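Researcher: I'd like a structural prediction for the single chain below. Treat it as a standalone chain; there are no partners to consider.
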Amino acid sequence: MIKALLRIAVAVLLGFATLPLLFPPVGAQKISDRSKQIGMKLKCMCGSCSMTAGGCSHPGGEFSGPCQAWALPALQQIDTLLAQGKTEQQVMDSLVAQYGPTVYAEPPKSGFSMVAWMMPTFYLVVGAVVVIFVISRWVKKNEPETVSSSAPAKSLPPELLERARKLAARETED
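Model: Treating it as a single chain, here is the predicted structure.
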């Protein structure tokens, strides 16, 4: 009897413990998936994190989610603009006009921002050329010079050459 009551009490406590997982926190507001996708292209401008607005999981405040300082209001603004029938590009243009081009999570692929996209490739190509140049210099520097054995050495006088032949013949006679 006591075991049955204990099991029921544990089941009720576990049920109450899982209750908060079933319902969103009181301060949480519904943000559409489309506005979160657009928010993934925007940098959270709160100044305390380096996440995107759509992926901001700033802890604290009423709940853990988009930070109250910038990401949540920006996502709500995106929701409002989408509800007005604006396209994704119009929403992005509105936010860029409001906060400047630093709101982009990655630089746009146009104008001067192309430098940011092209520099890694440029550095990779220049680095590969430098490595190839250095390795080819090392290989040329370490190549042994081959002396042809069929051609006689021109720097030796004939007397020394004859003397060396006689010495070699004498030592090989034994």
